[in-house]
Amino acid sequence: MKTSDFDFELPPERIAQRPAEPRDSARLLDLRDGIVDRAVADLPKLLKPGSLLVVNDTRVIPAQLEGRRGEGRISVTLHKQLSGTEWLAFARPAKRLRPGDRIEFAENFAAEMVERREGGEVYLRFDMPADAFHDALMIHGRTPLPPYIKRGEGPDGQDTHDYQTMFAARDGAVAAPTAGLHFTPDLMAGLDAAGMEMATVTLHVGAGTFLPVTVEDVRDHKMHAEYGEVDEETAGRINAARVAGRPIVSIGTTALRLLESAVQPDGRLAAFRGDTRLFCTPGFRFQAVDQLFTNFHLPRSTLFMLVCAFAGTEHMRAAYRHAIDKEYRFFSYGDATLLKRA
């Protein structure tokens, strides 16, 4: 299986630079039975009453930092927390950094580069108490927008609001679980009135989600680890819904990857707490999720591979061609799709 098998041409003007207003006014491409143009606001009447929707409650932190090593500027994006003051990060230019180097971000806010790791990662240790680190990050960090959202001088105040879901409750993500960006109080009220139920999991999305697949053989790609949690109550609710024949609808690929990581050999979900590197490509056997609500994804990306695995490669290729022809808006701030497991 080759990475080029998952390539497609996307006109730059199809990449959304701001979300729809209101968020649930975005368009929705319903791909469960054919290819049907709808709106996100239609979701309450599209899903079967009793469906269990699973959302990711991670909160995006201001993980983008600008600092100096001596006279040289260093840009750092934190992407995985190891302890209260230790992080894996991507740094530019990373080649300048050596173990023991000190990066100054502000007065009394600095990190030591402990070691270089595979995949362009560096291991940073901040020399301050955990609560002081958190406070400094909130002051000096910026929202780490994807590189395809162009802001010139960086994210603005509107992005601080826009790039956060209404479910955000637990600090730790450096990228938004973007399917959740479409949800509003009005949409939630409509889903509740239509008989839907909600469950919550946590997957702290890492900056690795922005990284392209650079190898040609898909089997050679190494996923970055992301930390997630499914508690016992949620696992039990999902198992009970499956026994009752109620559809499990994952709101986003992040929730889906976490749920599939929690599946046991007997097919039931168990409580999960730890890292996942789950990489879903065509041939993967999905067991936890029946339907997937998700945004449009980048060409040659692990997430486009995932939706091809979930709904069928040829179906997704045809759907993306339709979306481009009909001027759907793509990526984090763009429109959405609704898929069923092939």
Explain this structure to me?
This protein is of the alpha/beta class. It is built from 8 helices and 17 strands. The chain has a 9-stranded mixed β-sheet with strand order 2-1-17-16-14-3-12-13-15, covered by helices on one side. Strand 8 and strand 9 form a beta hairpin. The radius of gyration is 20 Å and the shape is globular. The two termini are 19 Å apart.
Could you outline the blueprint of secondary structure elements for this entry?
Elements: E1 27-30, E2 36-39, H1 43-46, E3 52-56, E4 58-60, E5 64-69, E6 72-81, E7 86-92, E8 102-106, E9 109-116, E10 121-126, H2 130-140, H3 157-162, E11 170-173, H4 185-193, E12 197-203, E13 226-230, H5 232-243, E14 248-251, H6 253-261, E15 272-276, E16 291-295, H7 302-311, H8 313-325, E17 336-340
Parallel strand pairs: 1-17, 3-12, 3-14, 4-11, 14-16
Antiparallel strand pairs: 1-2, 5-6, 6-7, 7-10, 8-9, 9-10, 12-13, 13-15, 16-17
Helix pairs in contact: 7-8
Stretches with pLDDT under 50, minimum 5 residues: none
What is the H/E order? EEHEEEEEEEEHHEHEEHEHEEHHE
Q: Which range does the strand content fall in? A: 25-35%
Average pLDDT metric: 94
Tally of individual domains: 2
The CATH class label of the largest domain is Alpha Beta
Remind me, CATH topology of the largest domain?
QueA-like
Known CATH architecture of the largest domain: 3-Layer(aba) Sandwich
The structure class reads alpha/beta
CATH superfamily of the largest domain: QueA-like
Using only C-alpha atoms, the radius of gyration works out to 20 Å
Number of helices: 8
Biggest pleated-sheet summary: 9 strands, mixed
Spatial order of the strands forming the largest sheet: 2-1-17-16-14-3-12-13-15
Total E-strand runs: 17
Helix fraction, binned, reads 10-25%
Shape: globular
Termini, distance in Å? 19 Å
